[in-house]
Each structure stands twice: as C-alpha cells, then as structure tokens.
Amino acid sequence: MKIFQKKKTCCSCEKDSLEQAIDLQKSSARIKVLGSGCAKCTALENNTKEALKLLGKQESVEHITDFAQIASYGVMSTPALVVDNQVVTFGKVLSCDEIKEILLKVGF
C-alpha cells in the first residue's frame, strides 16, 4: 500500500507561485490581516477597522486567506497584522487601543 505518492511538483512551493504571492503583496491595501478566516482573524480585522475609525482614517483593510501569500510575509502564526508591507504583529488578537498605538508609531 502506497501512502505517499511521489509528486514531481508541489502545489505552492514552485517558484512561479511564490513570485505571484510577492507581486500580490506589493499591489494591494496598506493594511492587511493575514489569517485563515477563523474567529481570531475576524476579531483582529474588526478591531483594526474600529481603530481606524477612531483615528478618523478612511483606509480599507484587506483580509488575506491565501496561505501562499501569508507565507510570503514569513508568517507562521496567525492572525497577523501588516502595515505598509511590514508585519507588525502575529499570533494574537490586538485590542483597538493596541492597534491605534501601532498605527501612530508607524506614522499612519
């Protein structure tokens, strides 16, 4: 019985898919939430939108669920918050106040 079939290619480890993920990084919103769409990821997205509203900013928040794109940021633990293509936090849900603090530190 063969459990593992020897594949000639990997689904997302090919050079082309990594390059596509990096290109998508550069061409989208300034603020991104990286995660699978679980409750914690959604909570971080909602807290981020609320923090932006409290700061009086009209910025959109993009929620990225594609694992190739998430991996292109070097994130292994979600949810993660990305501002201007820099990962500012990962692995936990931040409160609105914590997100406001981060946004002000990066000059948003």
Automatic annotation (TrEMBL):
InterPro entries, alphabetized: Thioredoxin-like_fold (IPR012336), Thioredoxin-like_sf (IPR036249), THIRX-like_proc (IPR005243)
Domain annotation Thioredoxin-like fold: ranges: 30-103
SUPFAM superfamilies: Thioredoxin-like (SSF52833)
Transmembrane parts of this sequence: none
Short name of one Pfam family: Thioredoxin_3
Official protein name in the record: Small redox-active disulfide protein 2
Organism encoding this protein: Longibaculum muris
Lineage, highest ranks first: Bacteria, Bacillati, Bacillota, Erysipelotrichia, Erysipelotrichales
